[in-house]
Design a protein that fits this description.
- The chain is an alpha/beta fold.
- The chain contains six helices and nine strands, in the order E-E-H-E-E-E-H-E-H-E-H-E-H-H-E.
- It has helices spanning 25-34, 86-93, 110-126, 151-158, 176-194, 200-204, and strands spanning 3-5, 10-18, 45-48, 54-67, 70-78, 98-104, 136-141, 165-167, 271-272.
- The chain is globular.
- It starts with a strand and ends in a 7-residue tail after the last strand.
């Protein structure tokens, strides 16, 4: 659901954090909010129960600065993981430009992860979308727990489309920054492919309203396949003027997309990127 306001040269994209209950979706957003400066982040909205379970969604807008002359923002959402909130998950997922699937690395949570992935695919299909054609990144969270499965085991069981993946400890920020940067990269490169320099007329015909939290009549936008590691760069994407913070990490392969870095990471997460499975 990329939204262009061409008169003010603003571009807004939507990324949804998906996964089973208590896997760390809200923890990701909270860490991002706590470690980005006020000039970059917006106000975080969280609708949760008294036990800190997400009831409807969490919402966090981030200002990425200028990209190809467009003021660019990404809106981060989470969905409730509890099985009985499926209609809410489907509603929040509508119009997503990219998805982060946060998996709980604990051995006893493998079936819950698989169920959540199946649910994600079903809800994407309900909006005429698919995992194969939607930019997405997997995050294997809670890697610090003693019963956490190895990353290679989790990847084999959960990464059906060979998407980029990261190991993470969201409570301390390990892997949070890298996950955010990679999904943002994939979304922006997809938009560049669709609305590049040779397609400015298409941008001019795009919507001229500013994106808002999800409603029942939000429009879904077409998406393309997440690029492979060897194709994650596009020189047409100019992000030289984007804001930077402390503790920047090394760029992804051939990267020219850099979002604000998150401070106070104890250690960088291992980056993994694979080529999408053949159709």
């Amino acid at each position: 659901m990329v939204v262009f306001n061409y008169s003010t040269r603003e571009l807004t994209t939507k990324v949804v954090f998906y996964g089973p209950g208590l896997c760390g979706k809200t923890t990701n957003l909270q860490f991002i909010y706590d470690h980005m400066p006020q000039g970059v982040r917006g106000k975080m909205l969280s609708l949760a129960t008294k036990s800190d379970r997400t009831l409807f969604f969490d919402f966090l807008p981030i200002d990425l600065g200028q990209i190809q002359g467009m003021k660019t923002k990404v809106q981060l959402y989470t969905v409730p993981g509890q099985v009985f909130y499926n209609e809410t998950r489907r509603l929040v997922l509508k119009g997503a430009d990219g998805v982060v699937f946060v998996a709980d690395s604990q051995e006893n949570m493998i079936e819950a992860n698989l169920d959540s992935l199946r649910n994600l695919e079903e809800n994407l299909q309900a909006h005429g979308m698919s995992m194969a054609d939607t930019p997405h990144v997997l995050q294997f969270n809670k890697q610090d727990l003693p019963n956490a499965l190895p990353v290679d085991v989790l990847n084999e069981k959960l990464n059906k489309y060979n998407a980029p993946f990261y190991e993470a400890i969201a409570t301390t920020g390990v892997g949070v920054q890298e996950t955010l940067r990679h999904i943002t990269k994939l979304v922006l490169l997809k938009l560049n492919d669709k609305y590049g320099k040779d397609k400015t007329s298409a941008m001019g015909r795009a919507a001229t309203t500013v994106a808002a939290p999800p409603t029942g009549n939000s429009a879904s936008a077409p998406v393309i396949a997440a690029p492979a590691a060897s194709a994650v760069a596009n020189p047409a994407v100019d992000v030289a003027s984007m804001p930077t913070l402390v503790s920047p990490i090394a760029p992804l392969p051939r990267s020219e997309v850099a979002i604000p870095a998150v401070a106070s990471l104890t250690a960088p997460a291992a980056a993994h990127s694979q080529s999408p499975a053949p159709p």
